[in-house]
């Protein structure tokens, strides 16, 4: 389907465009609020600065699609294929990305406040300075992801895989990280005050000057972790030492 045909039908009130093929189509800056693009093919399409608030894109194929600056507030993207997609400065507030494939995606400066990213694949993704406050990242794969200076305040990361992820300068205040895997992660100067890290694996992690004040470190593993200048909660200081 060409862009002109879609826009004409949308203007006439049509909203169901499930399974259409829009690969490579240029829809930059268009208003497609509430559109249903379930299982649609949008690989390589241009949707920069488009308004897709409330859109349904569940199971859609968006590989290497450019969504930079677009608004997808409250959109449904469950199990969507977004590997290599560009989501720079994209607004995904309260969007549902459960189980979505975002491997190697660019989500730098993206707004993902209260978004559902449970079981999402974000390995190697760029989330530099992204806002993930109160986001749901339960069991998500964030291995080797770049989360430098990202805001994860009160985010839920229970069971998430953050092995070898870069979280330098990230804010994880009051985040829920129980049973999360952070072995080899870079958490230098990260803020984890009040975070729940029970049964969390921080083996070989770089924790230089990280702030764990008032954090729950019950059962946390610190094998070979770098703790130079790390601020640890007094109540857990005896446990929070590198183990052999």
UniProtKB/TrEMBL annotation:
Domain of life: Bacteria
Domain PLD phosphodiesterase: 104-131
Single biological process term from Gene Ontology: phosphorus metabolic process
One Gene Ontology molecular-function label: catalytic activity
Name this polypeptide is given: Pentapeptide repeat protein
Organism (species): Gloeomargarita lithophora Alchichica-D10
